[in-house]
Amino acid sequence: MSLAQPRTVDDLLNYRLSRLFSASGAMIIRLCEGRYGITRREWRLIALLAAHGAMSPSELAQRAHLERARTSRHITELAARKLIRRLPVAEDGRRAQVELTARGRQLYEQLFPQSVGFHREVLSVLSSAELQAFEGALAKLTEHAERIAAARPVPEKADRRHGGARRLREA
Q1: What is the pLDDT of residues 147-170, one digit of tens each?
Q2: Looking at the chain, which runs of residues are DSSP E strands?
Q3: Which end of the chain, N or C, is less surrounded by CB atoms within 10 Å?
Q4: Residue 118 C-alpha from the chain's centroid
Q5: Percentage of residues in the chain with pLDDT exceeding 90?
């Protein structure tokens, strides 16, 4: 395998990161769904609200790297389970902030240490120097990818409202 000279999909950075995410995320997914009855995306929203406090649904979607519509559905589901609540913005009745409830905070305080445990277990194979180099490389790659995405957005988008990705057009 070579990141520098990809020959197959197995050599592509995104595929390799996806494999890592899938393998390491499986433990969290089972815990979230099996013990706590929430999805990994719902867990992400809860963890972001715990870390950063109340915010607008749009800001939450942006921080979570999720589409606004999907975030809105998750907010509705989490509010129905009394894990988060919507707070109307006084100056503008159309806007709201979302925040954790006491129940949501309790779930976070139970689940976060377990997530940290899985995190440490996965990273335990790296030496301190390797971990520091990996953190630096990851930050550098993320910043560069974000600059590329902002400078050269792909104009085609999937029509997710009508069954997912667009199909390839016949030539």
Answers
A1: 998 898 777 766 656 555 555 555
A2: 84-89, 92-100
A3: C
A4: 16
A5: 78
